[in-house]
Amino acid sequence: MLAYLLNLATLICINAVLAITLNFIMGYAGIFSMAHAVFFGVGAYTAAYFALNVSASLFLAIPVAMVVAAALSLVLALPALRVRGEYFVAASLGLQVLGVTIFAEWKSFTGGLGGVIGIPPADLFGHAVSDPVAFLMLAAGCLVLVILITNALLRSSFGRNLKAIRDSESAAHAFGKNVAVIKTLSVVISSALAAVAGALYAFYLGFINVESFMLDTSVLLMAMVIIGGTGTLMGPVVGTVLLMLLPSLFSYMWFLPQTEIGAIQQIAYGTAMVLLMIFRPGGLVGSGKNGVVK
Amino acid sequence: MLLLQLLINGVQVGALYALIAVGFSLIFGSTKVFHFAHGSTFTIAAYAFYYLYSVAQVHWLLAVLAATLAAVLFGVLLDRLVYAPIQRHEGSFFTVFVASLGVGIIVQNLVGMIFGRGFVSVSTPLSRSIELFPGLYVSPLSGIAILCAVVFFGALQLFLMRTHVGMGLRALSENPELIRVYGLSPRRLSTIVFALGSLLAVPAAILSAASSGLNPAVAHHVMLISLAATIVGGVGSLRGAACAGLLLGMSENLALMYLGPQWSEAVTFIVLFLFIVLRPSGFFGRAIST
Amino acid sequence: MNADDALVLLRISNLNKNFGGLQVTNNVSLDMRAGVITTLVGPNGAGKTTLFNLITGHLTPSSGDILWQGESIVGKSHWQIARCGIARSFQDLRLFNHMTVEENILTVMEPASWIWQPGGRAGRRAREERAMDILARTHLLDKAKTRAIDLAYAERKFLSLARIMATDAKMWLLDEPASGLDRGSYELFLDLLRTEVRHGVTVCIIEHNLDIVIGISDRIAFLDQGRLLADGDPNTVLNDPHLAAIYFGEQAA
Amino acid sequence: MTTTVLRTEGLVVGYGGRPVLDHFSFDLRANEVLCLIGHNGAGKSTLLKCLFGLVPRQGGQVYLDEKPLNHIEPRRLTAAGLSLVPEGRGVFPGLTVAETMKMGLWAAGVPKDLREERLDWVMSVLPALHAFYQQRAGTLSGGQQQIASIGRALLSRPRCLLMDEPSIGLAPKLFQDLLQPIRQLQRDTGMSILLVEQNVKEALKISDRVVVMKSGAIIREALPEELADNAKLMELY
Amino acid sequence: ADVTIGALFPLSGPNATYGDIFGSGANLAAEHINADKLIDGTLKIQYEDSQALPQQGVIGMNKLVNVSKVPYVLSAFTGVSKAISTTASRSKTVAINGGGVGPDLADLGPYFWNIIPLANFEVKAVLPYLIKERNLKRFVLVYVDDPLGEGIRKELTESLPQAGGELIEALSVPATAQQFSGIAARVRAANPDVIYIASYGSQQAQIVKQFRDNGIKQQFVSYTAFSIPEMSALPEAKGSLYTTQNVDWNSTDPVTKRFVDDFKKKHDKMPTAYIANYYNAVRLFGLLAHELQKKGKPITGENLLAQRIETKTFDLVGGKVTFADNGTVVSPMQVNEIDGAGGKVVSVVAE
Ligand SMILES: Nc1ncnc2c1ncn2[C@@H]1O[C@H](COP(=O)(O)OP(=O)(O)OP(=O)(O)O)[C@@H](O)[C@H]1O
Ligand SMILES: Nc1ncnc2c1ncn2[C@@H]1O[C@H](COP(=O)(O)OP(=O)(O)OP(=O)(O)O)[C@@H](O)[C@H]1O
Ligand SMILES: CC(C)C[C@H](N)C(=O)O
Ligand SMILES: [Mg+2]
Ligand SMILES: [Mg+2]
């Protein structure tokens, strides 16, 4: 039971990092990315590759993963500079599908559907972090750090710049904001921080494959953010906890047939999404009215 | 010969994509509802047909009618019961999107629970190919698919051109509140759109069930294709969506000349991505950047 | 006014713009001098807003040149032009709707697009103080924490002005800033504007309300069908019978 | 006794929070031009929107031809001969002016054989329309959009026209030129007009009656002559 | 006390059929063990749904290992097996595979055992038959884009030239693909003598059906994955060849006989190799646990491994089975043909 809770808590931390970083661009810069799982994946694969071939040290693997994800995120920034709203959703969807194809096909790096196996445990100051409690601490630490970083950024002038662009790009321009730089920067930061979650995930499971980084994950992350409350500080965390706990509840309902639990969980998800959007479109933490966006 | 064969396959697949995409494009273009559950409409129509025709063994015409009814009802009810309440308190574009995603997930899993998560197909003699020329095989379904696409698209165009509804729909997409000032009912227009758009998914659903089979997750692919075609064609342009659907079907098949089928979805989306970066307004759309 | 060339902030020379076949700006040459309020008037569709868009880089001219303090700014992107010191308002306001009034002001005071602003903590405090001062002058102080979208119409108009005051721009381009304001409000508005001009900004304003035009202009430029028909002293322009026939109607001063 | 076209009794309208209009009662009589003036935020637009069914009312009653309206629906009111020139841009940016007019005719339920004639008539009232008739509304200048919007509202030859600050963005001459034919039309057809304006000077010239609002209530009702001199007006503002 | 072992099978999704088949073997073995009181306490099998997907497998494996703390897990499918092998060796839990045939399953560490001969045997068994006896030399491979398909491709690329055949084209299909008319065109264009299909579940059925629909008339060949009822019932699959282990169902050896008789009684049909494999996997656990309990040692993965190395040879269905040091087994193979009836054996290949 304890093991089960630890596992759940660790996964919640990892997903919360992803939700927070997604909210950073979605809620504040108005960039609705459906490709967040790709950067999660890039972080995970990079960390795994690095750990298998160079060193499992967290202080090396995580920065490397961040840098790689940040560099690749420029591909996402490209359409973000060109289009907004639903067009960008489409572009990011495209990137997501493309990412999955590459993850599945670049077998020498990602192992394809078979994945990367045998990832060594993370190494922190020479100690292998393999104990579940220790790993939970590590994940929680990263979560706190990410929250602090994003918060600091959002309260700063950079955060205001992001919101200004979200509200009126042309006015931001007219007041001397270099929209291209700001957007690119926000995408880069968000992706780099998402890569932290990826690295943690790879070390935690010891195995990663393309299934974790598919469209479903991006959709789930987006649901976490929106259900929690787009553009709010705690919304993404609340959304993550809710969406991660919901399924576990069902596994404790012994009367449900084993093979249908997955489907029932999913239906519960879907229903929660629909009902929340009808009755609380601003998200659980949001203002009740819709928080943001044109 | 391979090229020709793939081209023909491409046209068949493209015709189906065009039909699906036009439905989505119509809905999205005029209501701005990111109707992710359009894929579910497809699933519902397809499974309804599969169940009635293959399992319950009713006459095919009856099965088609029932599938149509199911699809249209689903689309309209979804609009009324889910989208309308959200829009009433000015839900943002993404609020509706998430709700739509939720519906998609529900339908996929319900269908999975009822019909099994496995793969089912409708077997008909029509899927057996005929050798047109030595080495060139075409199944009667291809012909039907192309015919359907032409007929439905033509009828839709005629409807939109001949009636004022077409103009109303364009206006609806821009400012539903203003529509009311003009004395029209956005809800009625919206119902018409959802009924029409859902209807357009039916032939594609039935033909897919017969030619390549079904599983509860097909909605995903259907949705991705519709979205890609809508954007590539230019939002608001049905002609664009139809052409783009055709283009995507063809490029997917022609890519098989050189690449494995695991690249087909990627090829579709590379086309999409390039369009967005290089020509965001699509084939026929208007410029929309920033 | 002063004819001295040194005081010309913005010089528009032989500017042209067409949309398809339609010539919207037709060989316009116009100087805007420091410390002067120029009013742009003319019938609907004369090309006034277009002229603003050309200056600020939202549109690129088909031909002709725009010099800012002697340097051409044609071809620069709009944020670069904004940084030269040209600020504008929009006919449809375009406030940062979901940000608070205070944030609306602060964000335009922060010059850098990168993560850090120059000036550090002291700089930030200075900006905050100035923001409060501007809000006080535009009567928005008690709404500092309100989101722009929740403001009443007149307040939004004032916020649009406050946002421009917060920039360090030397030249303001205001597109119908007072339209729809009631009399009390627009008097306040004009007072504010006059004070700013006295402190050294240069203003170009588009306006249809003749009371306002008469109340504030140092100089009137009259556009019709993209052409600059008259440019000079308010009295002269307002009394021109030809212009009255096409624009002012029976009530010309 | 004069008949009323629109009348409200104890109308309450708001957007959450304190109501904008609190127990508001007023009437618009047949065959008159009623000018509604007041401060920014006084609730003029809110009243118009509520009368036309765009904002739900929270209490009170609205009467059309002295018959209470239970559901105020823009579609029904249009059919009953009402028409609204909304505040701001009343056109669809993606439609050309020609299309906008076509749609307006259809939406207002003008019979097919009358449409041509109706269009010609609007074009004669607003000759400026000719210049940009085939242009997409989104590319029009601010004033041009306003002209198109007014033109659209006239298509149905409404028997009751609600106009929310039509002068915004219009050149002075154009506004003057517009008011006269409308007044003429009103006289010819016995139409009632509810005109909300900040440009009081012009508006008063064609009004039969003036209502001054402040903070959601009527503070004064007068004849235009009474307010004609500026001093009186200044008092109220 | 009860003894619980885990099983990671696809219980839902397009490969759920395999889960049913595997489970029927495992359950029968558990029944027999419990009836025989081979171990103290009742043996229970806890099933987790892997959906035949690696990711799902790992999640299920973590649950079995961390929450239920089982010492022994039945695994299936090459991709899933590879994915869980890290967890298995880290937690010192035995994972035993009776369905996956990817050749690299042989090298997944001491805690990963295979009780099914791997694809190298399947391929080696069928090539000589096709090339020498049927004179079919030019091969096209259509394989699923996962570790299994990848493994078979490697195997064919290496062994075909040695056997005197030629691999003219290898076409991969994504694991989720269901539409094969384009691939069919490519296959037709290549014009091979024989088409090797390396997939499983409903996908392989679709490949066969759509290839025939699209005018492909050549011989189809596959491996054990074809031994499911869907395939024998598919009209288009008639004439297809596939390899399996060679088990003598009529053997008089008591273990085999009991298995076959009881299975027939229960399910009213003949068992297949898969069923025997998972019966064996569970039976093997029973034998090892029995030994450990006799010695008074706890049943842990570590002890199970030590005991397996110590005992080496076991009495299982099909006769005595000996594990190689890397935890694999060898077995004679046979080539089967789907004939629309019960199927027939066309060739038997000893080791
Ligand atoms: N993108 C465009 N395509 C075609 N014509 C355009 C475009 N943008 C503007 N125009 C035309 O250019 C002319 C000038 O427009 P502009 O907005 O500058 O007028 P304005 O002087 O600001 O008028 P107003 O006082 O009514 O706001 C108008 O006739 C308008 O229709
Ligand atoms: N959509 C809305 N949500 C919340 N409050 C609103 C909304 N629209 C208007 N209000 C508020 O209602 C009050 C009355 O607004 P209204 O627009 O009716 O005034 P008005 O008399 O038309 O003023 P103006 O002359 O500025 O047009 C204002 O205080 C305004 O802030
Ligand atoms: C059960 C079998 C169909 C599994 C397949 N042979 C694999 O290796 O993945
Ligand atoms: Mg203008
Ligand atoms: Mg108003």
From TrEMBL, chain A:
Keyword Cell membrane assigned: yes
Signal peptide: none
Keywords: Cell membrane, Membrane, Transmembrane, Transmembrane helix
Residues passing through the membrane, by range: 6-25, 32-52, 58-80, 87-104, 133-154, 185-207, 219-246
Compartment(s): Cell membrane
One Gene Ontology cellular component annotation held by this UniProt entry: plasma membrane
Record protein name field: Branched-chain amino acid ABC transporter permease
Species of the source: Pollutimonas nitritireducens
TrEMBL record, chain B:
GO cellular component, one term: plasma membrane
Gene Ontology biological-process annotations: amino acid transport
Subcellular location: Cell membrane
Main localization of the protein described in the UniProt heading: membrane
CDD domains in UniProt: TM_PBP1_LivH_like (cd06582)
Pfam families linked: BPD_transp_2
Keywords: Amino-acid transport, Cell membrane, Membrane, Transmembrane, Transmembrane helix, Transport
Keyword Transmembrane in annotation: yes
Listed transmembrane segments: 6-28, 35-53, 59-81, 93-116, 136-160, 189-210, 222-248, 255-278
One term of GO molecular function: transmembrane transporter activity
Topology relative to the membrane: Multi-pass membrane protein
Highest taxon of source: Bacteria
Similarity field: Belongs to the binding-protein-dependent transport system permease family. LivHM subfamily.
The name this protein goes by in its record: Branched-chain amino acid ABC transporter permease
TrEMBL record, chain C:
Coiled coil: none
GO cellular component, as recorded: plasma membrane
GO MF terms held by the record: ATP binding; ATP hydrolysis activity
Domain ABC transporter, chain residue ranges per copy: 10-250
InterPro entries tied to this protein: AAA+_ATPase (IPR003593), ABC_AA/LPS_Transport (IPR051120), ABC_transporter-like_ATP-bd (IPR003439), P-loop_NTPase (IPR027417)
Keywords: ATP-binding, Cell membrane, Membrane, Nucleotide-binding, Transport
ATP-binding keyword on record: yes
Protein name: ABC transporter ATP-binding protein
From TrEMBL, chain D:
Keyword Membrane appears in the UniProt entry: yes
CDD domains (UniProt xref): ABC_TM1139_LivF_branched
UniProt-listed InterPro entries: AAA+_ATPase, ABC_transporter-like_ATP-bd, BCAA_Transport_ATP-bd_LivF, P-loop_NTPase
Keyword terms of this UniProt record: Amino-acid transport, ATP-binding, Cell membrane, Membrane, Nucleotide-binding, Transport
Gene Ontology MF terms in the entry: ATP binding; ATP hydrolysis activity; branched-chain amino acid transmembrane transporter activity
Domain of life: Bacteria
PROSITE patterns membership: ABC_TRANSPORTER_2
SMART domains: AAA
Domain ABC transporter: 6-236
Gene Ontology biological process: L-amino acid transport
Record SUPFAM superfamilies: P-loop containing nucleoside triphosphate hydrolases (SSF52540)
Family: Belongs to the ABC transporter superfamily.
Name listed for the protein in its UniProt record: ABC transporter ATP-binding protein
Lineage: Bacteria, Pseudomonadati, Pseudomonadota, Betaproteobacteria, Burkholderiales
